[in-house]
Description:
The structure holds 2 protein chains of 2 kinds. By secondary structure, chain A is an all-beta fold. Helices cover about 0% and strands about 25% of the residues of chain A. Chain A has one domain (about 1-60). In chain A, β2 (about 45-50) and β3 (about 55) form a beta hairpin. Chain B has a single domain (about 70-340), classed as TIM Barrel. Classes of the chains: A mainly beta, B alpha/beta. The interface of A and B includes residues 21, 35 and 42 of A.
Amino acid sequence: MSAAFCAGCGRATTGCDGCLPELDPPRYCASCGTWMAVRVSTGGWVARCRSCDHEIRSGV
Amino acid sequence: MTPEPGVTDVTKGPLPSSVMARTLIRHAEDALLDERRLLTAEELAQLAALPADQTAALTALAHQVRLAWCGPEVEVEGILSAKTGGCPEDCHFCSQSSAFDTPVKATPFLDTDEVIAAAKETAALGATEFCIVLAIKGPDERTLARILELIPIVQSETGLNVAISAGILTREQARLLADRGVHRYNHNLETARSFFPQVATTHTWEERWDTCQLVKEHGMELCCGALLGMGESDAQRLELLGQLVELEPTEVPLNFLNPRPGTPLQIRKPLSAMEALKWIALFRIALPPVILRYAGGREITLKELQVMGMTSGINALIVGNYLTTLGRSPAEDLQMLEDLQMPIGALTGVL
Lengths: 60, 351
């Protein structure tokens, strides 16, 4: 399924080609465009949407 | 070699720049390796003024200095942002400042379990140091209590040395942290005193300096880093080196600006890899006994040349991810150290 929202700025992907820098975890939810609470640790990261509770993590 | 008849004798008249460069580098080598003394500010400025084609000679000297003063060991550390974003300070490079509209939003202090899990990830990679970092001006009573609670738990669960980075401290807070067993306290000067007003306006360079002094006074090792590439001049980098020489930190983490979206410094370009290598070398040459750590921004600045930093004066690194951004894979760094035959070990940075 293609993302509806940009993980770098939260805008609809129809309006942004994808601006998330290469070495950044996702900042916005690809499903609803809301900002995500991100926990970065030495070996990975977890990002959880503050709106729809969608959670993604590194390596998955 | 004696000049042939008709050939200019380089001992008379102006010397070619390459001869002058070799003379300066030999002089620095004598001072640092034989006399075993620090360079003066003037000697350092002469080296910094060498043309770009002398960077390889500078890095070679820095590597010799590192081996002679610190040995071949490399200290590996993991860091964790335990309280992210929402910082009231306006450090112009930082995505965690609430003064700027960045994609990094405020999140609360992590749970103890989350901190322990992150520390265990770090320990599993062979690291000896784990730094818990908070995006705050300084700790309030409740925050300090949480930090004090975490320190012995992380130590006992992982065996790691625990470092803390929690901003500006009072004398009493420094005492409490030292008593609790904090091994190292991180508080960066970031840049020269003369450039600092262009980097942050909500606190002063002098406040940072005072906290650094408090850390040392209370017997914690001082980790005091720099961030290069914010628009400071070479003279200001030299000024900062003079200030670090005076401060005598145990560790200097060397960061390179990674321009963050939404911050005032987002418009700046990262340093070139060769300029970064030159300044890594100059940091080592200026500060021969310190633990000089590769920190944030090395991936985007050095790119494929990251290994060269390890033979230009670096003797420690942050492994894996940073506070809010990602690093290259720990496996790549560990393989790099193995290929370089540089053993991982704890360092003290003491003369």
